[in-house]
């Protein structure tokens, strides 16, 4: 056996192949296992001993195979392995032996078949001899890593052992200290729900962090490994470390600044801080740790790049340095903290004082800081700092140092993505600067620099959201871009220009037609000719931009190209194995479906088959081989046919993931993006092709519902969105599809509940809640017919509103405490489900649930909550009133008091929603509100005198209209009507026009003298609303009937009003009067 194994480690393929064949034959012999065990104990070559251990592990992994061995052979193996573990001095061999033992304890311990092993571990770990003690912990670490579940029953004893060992350490950087912490990692699963374990790990955390600091000084690679313990505790047993949060964060911040300990440890320490920010953000704020974290992050962001020109931008490449990770942690702070808790110290201490700093790297850090916080603090910045941020970035764009200019360009791109629509107002200030940068690029012929990438990122992001505001700049912009589409310009520059054309098309839409022919002429060589590996990116980007043009230039303009486009796309996808190109082609097919609609039918069979193949197949998995493992490539050629056949169907023998973990793996981003685009394409095809997509709906649902559990969060979100659309398709399009719909809902409703409660990614949870919302809006009551569906949806909403989901920090914060903007969006997504539930549930049933949700909404309106939360809370109270009728009398006085108070709030949106809610309370509360009309009118009177916000003024008119419609006898019309008509027509919230004109119709039919005395402004308001299409089509008759009645009864008034109106509006009035 030893001779055969020796052949397998020689650097000669022929000899390796010969040895492999011999080993295959040898392994089929009955004495193969003891022979391997003997080699482990006797070979002088450590590489052969290690190889024998690895093969033995593979051989013994099946429980049934182990039991087939004679008892004396099993005893021989166990004794031999334990002896070799003690005697062998090579760590690689000890590890291999430990892994064999780890496999065997799965077979032996459940039957108490190896008491000697546990005695050995106990004896070694409690020995006074440091070498024996280290061997014991080394063995325990390997065994618990391989089969931790076999040891968890003894968790209390081991926790006591770890405590005593850590307390007795002389050197926190010793190997024993390292091994103890690595053993502790494997018992984290036993902590949650076990107070003894929580207390034990809690008491050990100061010593744990002392070991981390000790290892950081002497063995930083080991410090990286033991920090995994903090990761695991934060993920699975956070209660054990919360009391030591300050200590852990301070230690990690200290390590992240220590360049002597190496980048790996710096990055790991920063990531621990990020994990704790996500898990315990409220505690971080309460402990006043935000500013110390900001200080460290900014210092790291100011660190020069290794190449002096490196910009270390987050998300722009695959590099991971302390600087890029610091940017990511700042982004995480913005996403998870209330904006004022982050932005105030950031602006005051780091941005404003350093905007003109002498050191370029500090100025660079300023603009990167501005860039990364905008996503998480977008609303706050739009409301309070918009002008400041624009002013800062304009300064950066004119900075003489390219490093700083690049950072400012990156900031412009981030602003453009996250500060819409406000950012578009500044187009006239920003675009000329970007065009100057583009003009400079055209003058240079060398390969594009980093500045070119940043400039195009800023230009694209800014332009694609401008819509018609881009048009004044479009001719000059296209005169720069179209020449860049073709050779001899560098490939990278052409790729960027092609992408920028797509961004312009998103904004300009049909106005791109004058440039369309020139663009397509440039694309022709990329779309129709075979591309090299260097120019393949141009084909991919051309397909992407062609898809954008199909969506934007108008169906009539693109229709003549649809057949040619589809044939080209199918031809390309049949020839390629490039995931980037397939992804782009799926997007192109979806785009063309917006033009062809049901005429896509001839292409769907081919397209859907290809899409489903991409969804099913997990291509792109990259194995990471261990270079020190002498069996790399070996086991692909080894098999034990007899063993494999007899274990077919024996599910009890399935080994754990760790049994086969010599290789790690990742999935290439390109394949993830292909899968995501394939899922999204199904959604669009179903939405656009309607009946033509009918044959594919059920198979697509069955395939994509499985992807909801995919490890990648973007794919989970895309899958949820697509299966939602497929259910809507079944409901609206599929003939007789009720059974299929109910079957689909029976899978989707509980799946969404699982996502909402357990997914740790907030965006995925929001998508899960949006799924419920869309199903209720588009399908209605069938969503609630399945068993448990109503409870599933309602309980999910409650869990989110009470911060009880995995992606939320439940904490112990005050009620109504401010949240991060992302958390507020999560709460809003949950809350919006409630009124839609009310629309599809029987009123009495909904009333029972309303009584539970109302206190939650009221809680959101408290003073300590953010303006956005308070506005949302009162908005939800208003939206639910139409469905809460039966229980409104019980809450009338409480709601009235709350809404009257909020109608005087300093925030425009809160006031606006409160006044709207008052109107809704009046309309739906009816009799129970009549006694309070005087108080309500007094509130509205006070509000209209002091109000300057257009939306709030419109809602005052809407509330007055509802008062008139509901109980006109309770209104002093002589006082109210003159004020009412003075504020017509509405300025902004045109949905209120329905109520306004209904109330005016009612008053007119009553012959109300105060109204007849004010007909002129009423007629003019009608004409303006009608001319501006400011009322829904189904309610236009309210205006038309009123105008016809006025013209019939008071023609002079109509003629006078027409004279006082601008000509186009007067013409509309005349047509309405005589139609």
What would you say this structure looks like, in words?
This is Importin N-terminal domain-containing protein. InterPro entries: ARM-like, ARM-type_fold, HEAT, IMB1_TNPO1-like_TPR, Importin-beta_N, Importin_beta, TPR_IPO4/5. Residues 640-663 are annotated as: Disordered. With 1075 residues, this protein is an all-alpha fold. Among the domains are: 1-147, Alpha Horseshoe (Leucine-rich Repeat Variant), CATH 1.25.10; 151-287; 736-808 and 818-891, Leucine-rich Repeat Variant, CATH 1.25.10; 902-1074. The chain is built from 56 helices and two strands. A two-stranded antiparallel sheet has the order 1-2. Helix 24 (402-418) packs parallel to helix 26 (450-463), helix 37 packs antiparallel against helix 38 (713-732) and helix 48 packs antiparallel against helix 49. It is globular, with a radius of gyration of 35 Å. The termini are far apart. 47% of the residues are buried.
Number of helices: 56
Distance between the termini: 103 Å
Overall average pLDDT: 88
Number of strand elements: 2
Radius of gyration: 35 Å
* Structural class by SSE content: mainly alpha
Strand order of the largest sheet: 1-2
Shape: globular
Strand content: under 5%
Main sheet record: 2 strands, antiparallel
Helical residue percent band = 55-70%
Oligomer: single chain
């Amino acid at each position: 056996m030893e001779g055969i194994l020796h052949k397998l480690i020689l650097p000669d393929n022929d000899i390796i192949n010969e040895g492999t064949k011999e080993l295959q034959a040898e392994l089929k012999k009955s004495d193969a296992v003891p022979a391997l065990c003997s080699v482990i104990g006797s070979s002088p070559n450590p590489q052969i001993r290690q190889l024998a251990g690895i093969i033995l592990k593979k051989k013994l992994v099946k429980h049934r195979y182990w039991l087939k061995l004679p008892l004396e052979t099993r005893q021989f193996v166990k004794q031999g392995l334990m002896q070799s573990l003690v005697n062998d001095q090579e760590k690689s061999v000890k590890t291999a032996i430990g892994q064999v033992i780890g496999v065997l304890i799965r077979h032996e311990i459940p039957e108490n078949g190896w008491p000697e092993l546990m005695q050995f571990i106990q004896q070694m770990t409690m020995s006074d001899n440091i070498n024996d003690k280290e061997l014991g912990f080394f063995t325990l670490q390997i065994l618990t890593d391989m089969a931790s579940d076999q040891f968890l029953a003894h968790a209390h004893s081991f926790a006591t052992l770890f405590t005593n060992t850590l307390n007795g350490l002389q050197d926190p950087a010793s190997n024993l200290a390292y091994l103890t912490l690595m053993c502790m990692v494997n018992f984290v699963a036993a902590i949650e729900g076990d107070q003894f374990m929580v207390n034990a790990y809690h008491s050990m955390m100061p010593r744990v962090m002392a070991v981390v600091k000790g290892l950081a000084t002497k063995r930083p690679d080991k410090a990286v490994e033991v920090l995994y313990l903090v990761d695991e505790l934060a993920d699975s047993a956070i209660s054990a470390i919360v009391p030591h949060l300050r200590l852990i964060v301070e230690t990690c911040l200290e390590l992240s600044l220590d360049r002597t300990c190496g980048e790996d440890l710096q990055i790991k320490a920063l990531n621990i801080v990020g994990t704790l920010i996500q898990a315990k953000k409220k505690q971080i704020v309460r402990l006043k740790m935000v500013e110390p974290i900001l200080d460290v992050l900014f210092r790291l962001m100011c660190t020069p790049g290794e190449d002096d020109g490196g910009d270390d931008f987050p998300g722009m490449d695959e590099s991971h340095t302390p600087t890029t990770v610091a940017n990511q942690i700042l982004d995480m702070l913005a996403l998870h903290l209330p904006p004022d808790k982050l932005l105030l110290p950031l602006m005051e201490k780091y941005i404003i004082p350093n905007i003109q700093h002498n050191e370029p790297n500090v100025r660079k850090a300023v603009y990167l800081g501005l860039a990364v916080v905008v996503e998480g603090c977008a609303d706050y910045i739009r409301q309070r700092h918009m002008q400041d941020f624009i002013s800062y970035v304009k300064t950066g764009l004119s900075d003489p140092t390219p490093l700083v200019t690049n950072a400012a360009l990156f900031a412009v791109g981030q602003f453009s993505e996250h500060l819409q629509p406000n950012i578009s107002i500044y187009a006239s200030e920003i675009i000329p600067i970007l065009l100057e940068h583009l003009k400079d690029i055209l003058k240079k012929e060398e390969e594009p620099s980093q500045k070119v990438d940043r400039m195009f990122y800023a230009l694209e992001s800014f332009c694609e959201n401008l819509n018609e505001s881009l048009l004044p700049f479009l001719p000059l912009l296209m005169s720069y871009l179209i020449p860049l589409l073709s050779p001899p310009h560098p490939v990278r520059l052409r790729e960027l220009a092609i992408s920028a054309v797509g961004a312009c098309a998103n904004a300009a839409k049909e106005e791109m037609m004058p440039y369309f022919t020139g663009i397509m002429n440039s694309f022709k060589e990329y779309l129709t000719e075979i591309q090299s590996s260097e120019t393949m990116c141009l084909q991919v980007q051309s397909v992407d931009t062609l898809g954008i043009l199909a969506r934007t230039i108008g169906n009539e303009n693109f229709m003549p190209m649809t057949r040619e486009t589809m044939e080209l796309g199918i031809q390309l996808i049949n020839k390629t194995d490039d995931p980037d190109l397939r992804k782009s082609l799926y997007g192109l097919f979806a785009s063309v479906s917006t033009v062809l609609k049901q005429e896509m039918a001839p292409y769907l069979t081919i397209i859907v088959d290809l899409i489903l193949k991409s969804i099913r197949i997990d291509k792109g998995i990259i194995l990471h081989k261990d270079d020190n493992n002498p069996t790399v490539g070996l086991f692909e050629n080894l098999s034990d046919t007899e063993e494999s056949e007899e274990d077919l169907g024996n599910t009890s023998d399935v080994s754990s993931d760790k049994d086969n973990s010599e290789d790690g793996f990742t999935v290439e981003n390109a394949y993830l993006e292909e899968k995501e685009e394939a899922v999204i394409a199904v959604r669009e095809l179903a939405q656009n092709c309607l009946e033509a997509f009918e044959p594919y709906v059920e198979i697509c649902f069955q395939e994509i519902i499985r992807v909801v559990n995919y490890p990648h969060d973007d794919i989970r979100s895309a899958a949820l969105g697509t299966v939602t659309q497929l259910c809507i398709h079944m409901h609206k399009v599929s003939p007789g599809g009720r059974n299929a719909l109910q079957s689909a809902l029976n899978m989707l409703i509980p799946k969404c509940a699982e996502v909402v409660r357990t997914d740790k990614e907030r965006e995925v949870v929001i998508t899960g809640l949006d799924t419920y919302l869309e199903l209720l809006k588009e399908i209605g009551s069938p969503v609630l017919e399945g068993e448990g569906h109503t409870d599933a949806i309602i309980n999910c909403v409650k869990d989110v509103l009470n911060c009880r989901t995995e992606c939320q920090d439940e904490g112990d914060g005050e009620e109504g405490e401010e949240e991060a903007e992302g958390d507020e969006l999560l709460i809003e997504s949950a809350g919006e489900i409630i009124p839609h539930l009310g629309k599809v549930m029987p009123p009495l049933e909904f009333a029972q649930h309303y009584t539970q949700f109302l206190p939650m909404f009221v809680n959101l309106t408290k003073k300590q909550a953010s303006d956005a939360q308070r506005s949302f809370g009162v908005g939800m109270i208003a939206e639910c009133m139409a469905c809460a009728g039966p229980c409104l009398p019980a809450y009338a006085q409480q709601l009235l008091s709350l809404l009257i108070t909020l109608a005087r709030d300093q925030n425009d949106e809160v006031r606006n929603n409160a006044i709207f809610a008052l109107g809704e309370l009046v309309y739906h509360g009816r009799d129970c509100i009549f006694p309070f009309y005087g108080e309500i009118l007094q509130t509205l009177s006070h509000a209209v005198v002091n109000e300057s916000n257009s939306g709030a003024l419109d809602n005052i008119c809407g509330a007055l209209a509802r008062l008139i419609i509901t109980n006109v006898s309770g209104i002093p019309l002589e006082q109210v009507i003159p004020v009412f008509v003075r504020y017509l027509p509405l300025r902004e919230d045109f949905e209120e026009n329905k109520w306004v004109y209904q109330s005016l119709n009612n008053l007119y039919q009553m012959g109300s003298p105060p109204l007849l005395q004010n007909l002129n402004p009423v007629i003019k308001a009608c004409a303006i609303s009608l001319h501006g299409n400011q009322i829904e089509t189904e309610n236009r008759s309210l205006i038309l009937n009123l105008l016809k009645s006025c013209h019939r009864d008071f023609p002079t008034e109509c003629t006078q009003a027409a004279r006082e109106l601008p000509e186009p509006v007067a013409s509309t009035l005349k047509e309405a009067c005589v139609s």
